Amino acid sequence: MTGRIEARLIELGYVLPQVAAPVAAYVPAVLDGDRVYVSGQLPMVDGALPLTGRVGSGGGEGLISPAEANGLARVCALNALAAVRSVIGDLDQIRRIVKVVGFVASEPGFTGQPLVINGASEFLGEVFGPVGQHARSAVGVVALPLGAPVEVEMVLAINS
């Protein structure tokens, strides 16, 4: 039986993937009381990164555009929901998306990190409505694991 949130994902054209395998010594998500802490999720699709490199607006060779990175941030958020489901079983138990932290591998001088991470925030709003509104940080970094352009982590409150 598909719950309300998974049905909403399907309605929006998304399929909840399998949980991405950790790339180091951690678990994808931890349930502690009424909170779920999701480890940083990369934009993995079928076990691979669709794009690697840094985000920039100058349009140089090997640069990922802010629009492409915005789409990858959506994938990160979708992967985060898969990690949440792995520890709570039913996404309908989510009471609130509390906090989203997004990291953007950025070219020097790039300051559009908030617009990139909007991909994750807007996705969560589309899926959850007001429950998806959250506090957020968007941080530019030199590099991310495996050469990923974007990484997203989240904290969620669930019904206890």
UniProtKB/TrEMBL annotation:
Q: Which InterPro entries match?
A: Endoribo_LPSP/chorism_mut-like, RutC-like_sf
Q: Where is the Endoribonuclease L-PSP/chorismate mutase-like domain positioned along the sequence?
A: 6-147
UniProt xrefs under Pfam families: YjgF_endoribonc (PF14588)
Q: What PANTHER family does the record point to?
A: ENDORIBONUCLEASE L-PSP_CHORISMATE MUTASE-LIKE DOMAIN-CONTAINING PROTEIN (PTHR43760:SF1), ENDORIBONUCLEASE-RELATED (PTHR43760)
> What's the protein name?
RidA family protein
Give the species.
Answer: Kineosporia mesophila
